[in-house]
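User: Modeling request: complex.
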Amino acid sequence: MVFDIVEYEAMTSETGNGVVGLVIVSHSAAIASGLAELVAQVAGPDVPIVAAGGGPDGTLGTDGGRVLAAMHAADVGSGAVILVDLGSSVLSVRAALAELPVDVAAGFVLADAPLVEGAVAAGVTASTGASLAEVAGAAEEARGIAKL
Amino acid sequence: MGSPSSELTVVRLPEAVALHARPAGAFVRAAAAFDATIEVRANGRQANAKSILEVLGLGADGGTELAISASGDDAAAAVAGLAELVAGLA
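Assistant: Request completed. Predicted assembly structure:
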């Protein structure tokens, strides 16, 4: 199953409940969409989760324009937390944020968190109706939780 | 103000339901609705019931006994509500 931005726009306009959204940025479209699927199963149907994976031409890479579109889709009124995989994912998110007016950019938080654990923690926290800061905090707390 | 209470209950997961993915999310979401501090123990491990990563880390398969303890003003409601949720997972 492939999660694309159009599919999620439809979903978020349906739910539109002010829950904090998630944007998942990866160099790999498969990683981003697979993680979105996993988080959706744990967090339930109310959290807008938008995958932004891969470069402009469908290769491995990141794309600021795709990230920006995903951010707009994920924010249904309460902002969105952005999770990234590696290196230039951060640059793409910063490029996307730079395109936005300051007051709009303030609705997004780029989380300094491990991608999988951070997204799962953020998704479940968002599903409780938590604030943008609380959802971002849950993602960043994932850094300190031992896997074994 | 009444003094905060401590409560403990033990409940067994249905045989066919592991505390993973969707059930774990439902459990944590329910726990987050209470003010009480809530812990869940299984397989010799302990987790904050409001932390999805800690709850997933319990590795609780179907049929596992969960010990749910809570302290705080709504501790009794928390353990009762979570035990009911666990027993009803499908």
